[in-house]
């Protein structure tokens, strides 16, 4: 991002809660202020039936900006609630939801949760331990007890996705860190090799509709991972499920609309326009996160 050095006004050293490991955080003062304001407002709210949808809607209108995590020469936890891509949007909402459920309202608590979500279990911020592919994000956070993938009933989960990732190791020049540190490419390739042994059920886009079965299967606030036939990738886009009267919609940081939006069109209509997208994998946050 242009002039990112100007934007990175503050680098703080935080200690992980209950752990002697230290990690550095890149953020601006307005990020910490915003996090604590959002948590304070949520704490004071009389009734929040679905905190995922609540926090997802609090971030509506924020600009879509890609590569906001690629701002340092050495990997650090990056907090940026001024600009979001689809993955950081989901991660920030989940971290806020975790804080609310935990009864923890400090910026430090938010950072601890974001660290847990974004990197492999028990890892400090390192580029090779960041959960780059969303399939690994799902599997790793499932092992942490933070979520689970929904793959039943059949139908609507009538299709299988055999994971075939490899984009990062094949195109390292597209990634700032890999371009600067080619010695990390073998570790990324090993991660891809492990992921390519996996397969998951998904709902093909032809089965996405305003049906009783789908309303019972997909819940408000579920993470929707949109599968793809693009070479070397597993997931093309992610967001949150939200039901309207006319059907299922997507809350997402949209590169098409250049901001965080609650899509006015149904997910079915959205998917029909995306020729490279094949369907939807569904991820539900754990009961320990949701009230």
**Class by SSE composition:** alpha+beta
Our Rg estimate from Cα atoms comes to 18 Å
Strand content: 15-25%
Number of strands: 11
| Mean model confidence by pLDDT | 93
Shape: globular
Which residues sit in consecutive blocks of at least 5 with pLDDT less than 50? Answer: 1-20
- Between the first and last Cα atoms, what is the distance in angstroms? 38 Å
How many helices? The count is 11
> What are the secondary-structure elements, in order, as H or E?
HEEHHEHHHEEHHHEHEEEEHE
Indicate the percent of residues in helices.
25-40%
Briefly characterize the structure.
With 291 residues, the chain is of the alpha+beta class.
Question: Topology, please?
Answer:
Blueprint: H1 4-7, E1 10-15, E2 22-27, H2 29-44, H3 51-58, E3 77-78, H4 86-102, H5 107-118, H6 134-143, E4 147-150, E5 159-162, H7 167-170, H8 176-180, H9 185-195, E6 199-204, H10 212-217, E7 223-228, E8 235-244, E9 247-254, E10 259-262, H11 267-273, E11 277-285
Parallel strand pairs: 2-3
Antiparallel strand pairs: 1-2, 4-11, 5-6, 6-11, 7-8, 7-11, 8-9, 9-10
Helix pairs in contact: 3-4, 4-5
Task: Report on the architecture of this protein.
The chain is α+β, with helices and mostly antiparallel strands and 291 residues long. 34% of the residues lie in helices and 22% in strands. Strand 7 and strand 8 (235-244) form a beta hairpin. Helix 3 packs across helix 4 (86-102) and helix 4 (86-102) crosses helix 5. The protein starts with a helix and ends in a 6-residue tail after the last strand. The model is unreliable at 1-20 (pLDDT under 50).
